[in-house]
Amino acid sequence: MASSLSSSVVSDNGAFMEKFTLLPPNPSSSHQLPLTALTFAVKDIFDVEGHVTGFGNPDWARTHTAATSTAPAVLSVLKAGATCVGKTVMDEMAYSINGENIHYGTPVNPCAADRVPGGSSSGSAVAVGAMLADFSLGTDTGGSIRVPASYCGIFGFRPSHGLVSTSGVIPMAQSFDTVGWFARDPVILKKVGNILLELKDDNPATLGQLIIAEDCFDLLDIPRQLLTEVLITSVEKIYENQKIRHTCLGDFVEAKVPSLEHFMENKSIKQEGNIPSLVALSSAMRLLQRYEFKNNHGEWVHSVKPDLGPGISERVREALGSTDENIDVCYSLKNELRGALTELLGDFGILALPIVPGPPPKLQTEPTTLETFRAKAFSLLSVSIPLGMYDDLPIAVSLVAKHGSDGFLLNFVETIYNTLKEQCKLS
Question: Where is the Amidase domain (predicted)?
Answer without folding.
Answer: 31-185
